[in-house]
Amino acid sequence: GQQVQQSPASLVLQEGENAELQCNFSSTATRLQWFYQHPGGRLVSLFYNPSGTKHTGRLTSTTVTNERRSSLHISSSQTTDSGTYFCAIDRMDSNYQLIWGSGTKLIIKP
Amino acid sequence: EAAVTQSPRNKVAVTGGKVTLSCNQTNNHNNMYWYRQDTGHGLRLIHYSYGAGSTEKGDIPDGYKASRPSQENFSLILELATPSQTSVYFCASGHRDWDNQDTQYFGPGTRLLVL
């Protein structure tokens, strides 16, 4: 079945460093999304990025669909970026369901 | 901003007991979802719904039932709770954007402990 793998599983950086998170998926995805989970548990959508590059603030998502990979780049990291980042892709047999990766836990130290 | 609320936020249940987790959304989204999240896993889909009166099985439906009595409300029911169902449960509602993106908005989660 479709799978989503994220790396690294965890990442510890000093404030100001850049972070690079990777997502690889096992089949061509028509919808790839990045989500952020606050340390307290709240989940929010960051990017819908099925292909190409998208920016918002210090975050950049790049998806190369034919290579089945996506990355999330966080520049000049801040302590408030700490949390867990998930990527998810659509299911081939459903337009409404997502398959989720296991996440990358990011810790930014002051 | 979409508003999705869950109740209770925390629940302790006994093995064999019945547990009902409730979810309410105020944005008229057709789609609603129940996920569970365990350490080392991403979110796993339990049940989902396309609208009032509909429920569909997700990836891990065993031991769970769902009910969608209205557009706003979607409940997850554990008829006979087991310790393996100890987890954090998230509800989400969703709709299709103009660019075909299925945006999901999440509730704050419910921590369930089954003793």
Task: Please specify the SSE layout and strand pairing.
The complex is a heterodimer of chains A (110) and B (115).
Chain A: E1 4-7, E2 10-14, E3 19-25, E4 32-37, E5 43-48, E6 52-56, E7 59-64, E8 69-74, E9 83-90, E10 98-100, E11 104-109
Parallel strand pairs in A: 2-11
Antiparallel strand pairs in A: 1-3, 3-8, 4-5, 4-9, 6-7, 7-8, 9-10, 9-11
Chain B: E1 4-7, E2 10-13, E3 19-25, E4 31-37, E5 43-49, E6 56-57, E7 65-67, E8 73-78, E9 87-96, E10 102-106, E11 110-114
Parallel strand pairs in B: 2-11
Antiparallel strand pairs in B: 1-3, 3-8, 4-5, 4-9, 5-6, 7-8, 9-10, 9-11
Description:
The complex is a heterodimer of chains A (110) and B (115). Chain A is built from no helices and 11 strands. Chain A has one domain (4-109): Sandwich (Immunoglobulin-like), CATH 2.60.40.10. In chain A, 0% of the residues lie in helices and 56% in strands. In chain A, strands 2, 4, 5, 9, 10 and 11 form a 6-stranded mixed β-sheet that branches. In chain A, strands 1-3-8-7-6 form a 5-stranded antiparallel β-sheet, with no helix packed on it. Chain B has one domain: Immunoglobulins (Immunoglobulin-like, Sandwich), CATH 2.60.40.10. In chain B, 0% of the residues lie in helices and 52% in strands. Chain B contains no helices and 11 strands. Chain B has strands at residues 4-7, 10-13, 19-25, 31-37, 43-49, 56-57, 65-67, 73-78, 87-96, 102-106, 110-114. In chain B, the strands form 2 sheets. In chain B, strands 2, 4, 5, 6, 9, 10 and 11 form a 7-stranded mixed β-sheet that branches. A 4-stranded antiparallel β-sheet of chain B has the order 1-3-8-7, with no helix packed on it. In chain B, a hairpin with a 5-residue loop joins strand 4 and strand 5 (43-49). Chain B is globular. The model of chain B has no long low-confidence stretch (mean pLDDT 92). The A-B interface holds A 4, 31, 33, 41-45, 48, 86, 88, 90, 95-98, 100-103 and B 31, 33, 40-45, 48, 50, 58, 88, 90, 92, 94, 97, 99-106, 108-109.
